[in-house]
Specification:
The chain is an alpha/beta fold and 240 residues long. It has one domain: Glycerol-3-phosphate (1)-acyltransferase (3-Layer(aba) Sandwich). Helices cover 45% and strands 14% of the residues. The chain has 10 helices and 7 strands. The chain has a 7-stranded mixed β-sheet with strand order 1-7-6-2-5-3-4, sandwiched between helices. Helix 5 links the parallel strand 3 and strand 4. The longest helix is centred in the last third of the chain and has 22 residues. The two termini are 30 Å apart. The model has no long low-confidence stretch (mean pLDDT 93).
Length: 240
């Protein structure tokens, strides 16, 4: 909370403009995903700088050249999406649980990026989201899905990955891009405004030819294992 306050205070004169811009991109009839993403990316970079957060990205060359893929990172907190918004060069939407979808500003970002809210207590709605994401990915949209389903609250340690979160990828037969977040819990979950660095590692994509014959729990374990290996390598060695 302290860092969010710092962001707002240091950007106090620009906050109305930023909020209005995000709201407008979510409401405009002539919606342009590239322009909407560029604006939100601009706001995110400003907020991160104001909040004394540095983002270090690795493996950008692993992001597929053609759109229509899904990022699967570990989940550490509300700041996770901001890491991707500053780092990722191509537009993406994300799947977010209903409980978090009403957070101020995040709600407007969801609309501006045409992201999808999932109600995990409603099986029919959840299946509808799986199918919707699969169809949109087939059409060339990119998504981000947190396979743990909820933040780990254990620092850089991961919770089990849920096999069901990979059903959209299976249906779309799209590239799966494992992503490792390191220290993304620190900006918002720790009561500090000290300078902090968050790392994001884009791992080589896993194509349908590799995972198509696997069951979703097997895919989940494979992706989790690759992320854990990357976290160990980058966290402990300080690799740059």
């Amino acid at each position: 909370m302290e860092r969010i306050v710092l962001m707002v205070v240091r950007l106090i004169f620009r906050v109305p403009y930023y909020m209005l811009g995000i709201w407008w991109n979510g409401k405009r009839k002539d919606y342009d995903p590239e322009k909407a993403y560029a604006f939100i990316k601009k706001v995110t970079k400003a907020a991160n700088r104001a909040g004394r957060v540095t983002i270090e990205s690795y493996g950008l060359e692993n992001i597929p050249k053609e759109n229509g893929f899904i990022f699967f990172p570990n989940h550490q907190g509300l700041f996770d999406v901001l890491v991707f918004l500053e780092s990722c060069p191509v537009p993406f939407a994300f799947v977010i649980k209903k409980e978090a979808s009403q957070v101020i500003l995040l709600k407007q970002v969801i609309s501006a990026l045409r992201s999808v809210v999932i109600d995990r207590e409603d099986i029919r709605q959840s299946l509808g989201v799986i199918n919707q994401v699969a169809e949109e990915v087939k059409k060339g949209r990119n998504f981000l899905i947190f396979a743990e389903g909820t933040r780990s609250k254990m620092g850089n340690k991961l919770l089990p990955f849920k096999g069901g979160t990979f059903k959209s990828a299976m249906k779309a037969k799209c590239p799966i891009v494992p992503c490792a977040l390191i220290d993304s819990f620190k900006p918002f979950d720790e009561r500090s405004i000290q300078q902090v660095t968050v790392k994001l590692i884009y791992l080589p994509p896993i194509y349908y030819e590799e995972y198509g014959t696997m069951k979703t729990p097997e895919i989940a374990n494979m992706v989790k294992s690759r992320i854990e290996t990357a976290i160990s390598e980058y966290e402990n060695t300080g690799k740059r």
